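Section handout 9: paired folding examples.
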Amino acid sequence: MSRYYDRENLKLIPDLVRLAPQASAAYLNFEKVVYQAGEESAISGKTKELIAVAVAHVTGCPYCIDVHVGKYKALGGTMEEIMEAVLVAASTRAGAILSHATHALLSFEGAAAEKAEERNVPRGPSEPECFC
């Protein structure tokens, strides 16, 4: 039986925290501050959870989808709102991909290399061609 993306795996987070307590504490404090809702927050907790649902779909994290959908539903959110937010995220991601295609066009036409030469950006023999 596969344990890949089993919700039970989330119970192992305390074990991970113990492996890097200082960095984990910083992250958990950051998360706590970000998700706080109240007078100092410009957006509601419900809106923050809807954003989290949409981002979880972009990052493809089933754990985050599960957790944030549950929190959003508990705050009165609807599946129609979730679906609309997911479609906005999908459209935004697709738009970013399309706009990044300008780099492919420039590379194909050789403009990127010409621009680098114009800026006198030397490339050493040990420098990687791509960081992905």
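Moving on to protein 2 of 2.
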Amino acid sequence: MEEPRHGHTRQASRDHIPDTAPRTRQGADGVRTALPGEEPRSTGRVGWVMFAGIGMMLVGCSQALMGLVGVFNTDFYLVTPDDLAIPVDYTTWGWAHLIMGVVVLLVGAAVMAGRTWGRVVGIVLASLQALVNFAWLPAYPFWSAIVIAVDVLVIHALAVHGGEMKAFGGGGTP
């Protein structure tokens, strides 16, 4: 290459080639991830995280509605409170479900925004929600089984693919 000011020719070398290639490594599962200290890249598996966020918001709404039923209509459930795994009256269970549902809904929105704290709290809440629904199983078996299954998928999605939402949506840690 010739520099126009001085009329000298410069040899092309690797030192003058800009490094624009992304620096990634390929994991055992075949997914390319960013090296430590670099921003993660979005992959096709970001859909799992979107599923987790949307699933948390939907299950949170349903959980809150189930809590309202427990608070205002204790005769809705056919099983007596003594037959539950933890013998507590339905009003107490209703408040627990209502509060947990609202919190899960809000954390699901944080997961969709790509917040790291939302991921961590989401895993903890999905685990806690699965345990609560396991105790609720005698009162509402079909719905409790669905919630437990969704919670297992949410935990998997957030634990394995959660970092990809940050690259996809540009969310941060605040």
